[in-house]
Amino acid sequence: MFGALELGLIYGAMALGVYLTFKVLNFPDLTVDGSFTTGGATAASLIIAGVDPFLATAAAIGAGLIAGYITGLLHTKGGIDGLLAGILTMIGLWSINLRIMGKANLPLLREDTVFTPLRENMLLGTWVSIAILLAFALILKFAIDWFLTTDLGLAIQATGNNKEMIRSLGVNTDNSTMLTLALSNGFVALCGALVAQYQGFSDISMGIGLILVGLASVILGQAVFGNRNIFMASLGALLGSVFYRLIIFLALRAGLDTNDMKLTTALLVVIALLLPRWGFLKRIPSLRGRGNRAATSVPQGTTDIKDPAEIADIPAGASSARAGKEG
Amino acid sequence: MLKINTISKTFFAGTVNERKALQGLSLELAESDFVTVIGSNGAGKSTLLNTISGRLPIDSGSITIDDAEVSRKREHKRAKYLGRVFQDPMAGTAPDLTIEQNLSLALKRGQSRGLGRGTTSARREHFKDELATLELGLENRLKTKVGLLSGGQRQALSLLMAGFTQPRILLLDEHTAALDPQRAALVTALTKKIVEADGLTTLMVTHNMEQAIALGNRLIMMHEGRIIYQATAEEKKDLTVETLLGEFSKLKGATLGDRALLN
Fold first, then answer.
1. Residues of the domain holding A176
2. Which member of A153, A171, A325 has the closest CB to residue B174?
3. Residue A310 maps to a domain
4. In this predicted model, what pLDDT tens digit does every residue of A101-123 receive, in sequence order?
5. Which of 116-135 (B) contact A at CB < 8 A?
């Protein structure tokens, strides 16, 4: 139970990364499966090489930033479809991750990791470690909240929302897309580095199917916390990750084994996506309706019908208009 | 101010679908000119605006704004000169962002965007004042998501966003065409108000001849990628729809859109 909470909070970093691409940028980024392992691999190899674990974790973030940036380059400069760009990077990273690690599995036994102080004081699996991890996850969450409300962050939100509009306001959407992908994969790699240190090894296949875990977290969180503003949405992603781990924990308790977890995760995402369609939970429409969000406008109040004469003098004849546009 | 020198644009060049959208068109706008552009379907009106804004690259010719050659600059680089409103009311705003966030985005048009707060209280006060001029009550709904506004409200907001940072040139691309008559009238009135308040240099494409006559100090008529008729400030005062229709009828093969005739 405590273990599930700890894992949930650690994986919260990845959920926040996935939130940045899937929800904010409206970009289905599959780089995650590769960059997560890249994070774990980078941190593990550096730690084994004697590098300070915090520095190694920072380096892992750097590796993730680069991975995300490459996907961004492929998509924006190369004009490759976003889904495919992510898959290409993910597949390519498999070989790179093996190069980084040198072999398929790197154990971190008896190495100092960022969790060593907790482990040595027998604090892992207690409220203390959960409090520390919660604080860490909340710092990441508030960092994202803050970032998205800056001028630059608003431009990124607009990039995911209405590219044409923000381009007309002078934003290079190629750059904002690449920046967001880089940041997102930085979060994912950070998560990979922490998971590797938490579980005591880095493995080449540790990232497989992870995008679905991230997605499950984001969708679960959104179902519970809604999508009213950034604060709630990022909180939802974070706590969705914890919910997800608890569900997995309960599923394992119920007698399923770890190999069933991929199917469990997939089913969880399917259920979370289908439920609102059947009208139970109308709060999570946007992943199913990707791309046509603008069309879901609901008129609220009808204050815009006004006598034009009140606003300015204009010849009556000018008040007629036609719909249509030249071909 | 704005100098367009013999620009040409051909779509699908060298194919059976080849279409010459602009054929050596030249146009010059002086400071505070408000030029309305009319023309038949496919005359190149929207193409003209899109080449100025950089959404479409030109094949030849040059476009200079304030003596700066911009025709090779990409769209986002030209944004510092241009305020734009599109035909689609959904196009000019970000639906999932609030009114104040949209205005913040517009406030930084063409500037570099850093890590400063997007919506400060100082900006909010400024936005309230600006929104009040629309007289739509939007100044009390700063935190409303724009996707919840009606088409007319969104278009009015787009217009404000395009105009309130005093762009060197305001480009209006049939921005009232997708609205019902009442809302179109409202947006037309706001256009007049916003343009006149700051003396903005404006290029407005419209299908509506009456609107083209009522607004602005100059009028141009386009056909097959060329300007075929111009009315100066003097001439425009006495211009009537009949005169314009007469000009149209001189053209061989020119057909007005049904909608234009219905008016």
1. 2-291
2. A325
3. no
4. 999 999 998 899 999 999 899 88
5. 116-119, 135
